[in-house]
Amino acid sequence: MDVRFQFDFERALAAMVYIASKQVSGLDMYKLCKLIFLGDKLHMVRFGRPITGDAIRAMDYGPVPSEVYDALKGLTASAENARVLALSEHLTVDRHYEHPRFALKHPVDFGYFLSASEMNALDEVIAAHGAKGFEELYALTHEMAAYKQAWEQRGSSRNPLMSFEDLFTNDSDAIAGAKEEMLEDYEMRQALHAD
After folding, report:
1. Please, which residues have CB within 8 angstroms of residue 182's CB and are 6 or more apart in sequence?
2. Shortest CA distance to 161 belongs to which of 63, 67, 69?
3. Strands 62-65 and 91-94
4. Given pLDDT bands bounded at 50, 70 and 90, which one contains residue 189?
5. Cα–Cα distance between 35 and 134 in angstroms, integer?
6. Residue 78's pLDDT is what?
7. What angle do CA 145, 116, 190 make, to 5 degrees?
8. DSSP readout, 163-183?
9. Could you tell me the pTM of the whole model?
């Protein structure tokens, strides 16, 4: 089964802003994307659903939440669209670095968009990986079974989609039953949306 989720930009925005509120050092696009991915993954293997619902692509530098990546690229390039405007309301871009860094503009109440379990997952990811640099995050994410599986089977696809099911493989944080719950929920969503 090829499980997919509906991307929720409001939740993704809240997650990005939440991470920025924690004053993570060197918070550039690469690190922010990795922390979002790791937060989605941790929440997925514990509760059977990601935080953002973003599709994860296996790219040269590791797993990347594709919609989050596109929005951040737009922000650093000063593009003008609804997502970039929403991001620019909450995040500043410091272009004094080779890779622009993000910081929080003003405090935000996250409780409206993120659940306690989602904030806890992000807190755990920030505590475990927020101080890591590019090389450490690269090594960590390239060793994940889900990334290896997608990368090795990419065929002609330059940036193949990673399987949500594979995120559970060899993951010590996976809770018994979470994968089954994810699969059952997906089957139910598919049945409700069938013509």
Report:
1. 3, 44, 48, 49, 164, 165
2. 63
3. unpaired
4. confident
5. 12
6. 87
7. 55
8. PTGGGGTT-TTPPTTHHHHHH
9. 0.94
Token pair of 77 as six digits? 């390039």
Predicted pLDDT at 108: 81
- Give residue-wise pLDDT tens across range 49-101: 999 999 999 999 999 999 999 999 999 998 889 999 999 999 999 999 999 99
The residue written with tokens 């696809």 in the block is 157
pLDDT at residue 152, as a whole number: 92
Judge contact between 44 and 118, C-beta under 8 A. no
Q: Amino acid identity, residue 74?
A: G
Q: Name the residue with tokens 């559970």.
A: 168
- Report d(CA 129, CA 180) in Å as an integer: 28
Where do the H-state alpha helices sit in the chain?
9-21, 29-47, 66-76, 82-90, 116-129, 134-142, 145-152, 178-193
